[in-house]
Amino acid sequence: LALPQMRAIHHLTDEDIRRFCQRLQLSSRMLQGTTPVSPAITRDVSDTKWVALAVEADADYLVRNDRRPLHRLRKIGRTQIVTPRRFLRELDRHSS
Question: Residue 29, class by beta-carbon neighbours within 10 Å (0-12 exposed, 13-18 middle, 19+ buried)?
Answer without folding.
Answer: exposed
